[in-house]
Amino acid sequence: MDTGRDIRKRLAAALAPINDGTARTFIATMVSITSWRSAVALVLTLFRSLTQGAQLLLLVPLMQIIGLDVQQGSVGWLSGLVSSAFAAVGLRPTLSAVLGAFVVLATLLSAITWWQTIFNLRLEQEFVATLRRRFYRAVAGTEWLVFSKIRSSDLTHALTTELNRVGGAASVLLSLVTNAVLLSVYVALALKLSATMTAVVFLSGAALLLALGKRTRAARWTGQETSLATNGLYSAAIEHLGGMKTTKSYGAEDRTTRIFSDFTDRVAQMFVRTTRVYAGTAFWFSTGSVAILCAILYVSIEVLNMASAGIILLLFLFNRMMPLFSSLQNNCQAFANAMPAFAGVLSLLERCEAASEKKGGRPGREIELHRHVRLEEVSFSYGAEEKAPAIHDLSLEIEAGKTTAIVGSSGAGKSTVADLVMGLIKPTGGRVLVDERPLTPEYMDSWRDRIGYVTQDTFLFNDTIRANLLWASPAASDEEMERALKMAAATDFVSRLPHGIETVLGDRGVRLSGGEKQRLALARALLRRPSLLILDEATSALDSENERRIQRAIEELRGRMTILVITHRLSTIQSADVIHVLEHGRLVESGDWEALVSRMNGRFKTLSQAQGYGEADNGRRPSHDPRPAPEANLLSE
Ligand SMILES: Nc1ncnc2c1ncn2[C@@H]1O[C@H](COP(=O)(O)OP(=O)(O)OP(=O)(O)O)[C@@H](O)[C@H]1O
């Protein structure tokens, strides 16, 4: 036989899935976000439960009216209570008064339920929206290096599906509290009627809960598996849709469809399993409830010889209580099922918050670029697993008002230098200085405000061109936008679009060609009138005509703006004031074009010759088309 300790242990095990740290954190988070609204929800629940209890009590005068004896035992006490309530409002418990009261209470109950439904839904949505905003802010504020190591599909999955499930958990929790309060009201009434019978029902209910505790654990397991399966489905969907062109060109549609189908099957399987757990529970509860109700009837009539009014009232009460046990069990399962989603969101959130970029500082911490950006013996490693640092003891200068180029083979560390200059990553050794001021967190907002950054991987919103431009510089006027578009050689194609600057761009700007997108991204950067314009392979998708136009525009900016060009293609940097050549994260050569191409056996000279720049005219005029197919780029190793 189970000892008290055994039962306590089993009870703790049954409740473990909803009573662990995650559940406690969930409740604490929900209460802290919804604050006083949680208290209002509780008060509404209490009102609703009391109204339902009062409605049930109206059975007592009704039984009296149809001729049952309601004066015996505890029913007599309840009958006295109801009569006093009627007397308090100056009525006698006649049939019409009782039915009238019933209608009033039913209307009140419907009104409270209606209000509670909307209130709880708002509460749930507010909770999820706040959590979602907090999550997004944490993600956006995460240090670049940490962010770049998190799978974007994990973040998308957490922000969408998983946070929806967390919202579901909030709703379940509210319903769990409602059911628990209602059950307490019924229990209080039942105790008044028959302590013995209530104890029997409670023990039976508890026994059922214990017996089905395994199912709550199963619900948590299916919850975990559902999180994994939907996460897999998300990343597969994102990867497969993003790579559809490659898939088609490889004729691999069937293969990717098969991979995708596996994920889909897994998700379907997990949902079926979850429902099976719920359905099993419902089966055992309804069967158990009937058995318990029969036992109650038997004991009340045969053993306790209870009066008929008491039996009817108890039957009504227990008939309402048993589904509440079942609902509680269901709530527990659904809550346990959603907890892995919350745990996953929380773990990502904590990871992002722990790696939050410490920037912002005090107002007035302005930084200006008047003289130069200087890298002083800078080293940088992406992680302990890296064999050699990405940047090694690098010292170089980006002079204000000049155009500086960084060239080098693929993986030489060019983009890492740009990230260091922007302060997106911190040197593991050495310093980055702006006008001899170390680039520390308190200057970061001011510094980034002064940067225009254009990459090869252009990112445009699914919105109008105007909105895309204003995103970078919200106060820009129409004239400024036009000027920026002109400087980026984008005026022609924008004016040819159906609605000009008001044209809505498709998903990631798909309606535009790669070169058009790059020109818009450049216009957006120029609109900020940056002190430092960083072009990281920014003209890689442009044809020679547009590249020349942009180069001309950039040349017109000379002296007004500091420009850092990172490129494979030497055609874009012929007029750069200084060219730095990187190799394996080290600086191997620096100088202007003439100086570098005239250096015997110089690395740059070799590179320029490999790209078709001959001896004639100081190696400026390519001996053949300097623009080979990108994959044949001769700077790549
Ligand atoms: N987020 C990252 N995590 C780990 N290693 C990285 C990361 N980004 C870059 N690296 C590594 O650092 C080195 C320098 O990369 P970087 O992107 O700066 O080179 P790059 O010269 O810009 O190359 P490319 O011209 O091909 O863009 C490479 O070996 C690369 O594998």
UniProtKB/TrEMBL annotation:
It is a multi-pass membrane protein. SUPFAM superfamilies: ABC transporter transmembrane region, P-loop containing nucleoside triphosphate hydrolases. One of its GO terms (cellular component) is plasma membrane. Residues 373-609 form the ABC transporter domain. Coiled coil: none annotated. It is found in: Cell membrane. Residues 617-628 have a biased composition (Basic and acidic residues). It comes from the Bacteria. Pfam families: ABC_membrane, ABC_tran. GO terms for molecular function: ABC-type oligopeptide transporter activity; ATP binding; ATP hydrolysis activity. Residues 39-337 form the ABC transmembrane type-1 domain. Signal peptide: none annotated. The chain crosses the membrane at residues 97-115, 166-187, 193-212, 277-298. Residues 611-637 are annotated as: Disordered. The keyword Membrane applies. Keywords: ATP-binding, Cell membrane, Membrane, Nucleotide-binding, Transmembrane, Transmembrane helix, Transport. The keyword Hydrolase does not apply. This is ABC transporter ATP-binding protein. It comes from Rubrobacter taiwanensis.
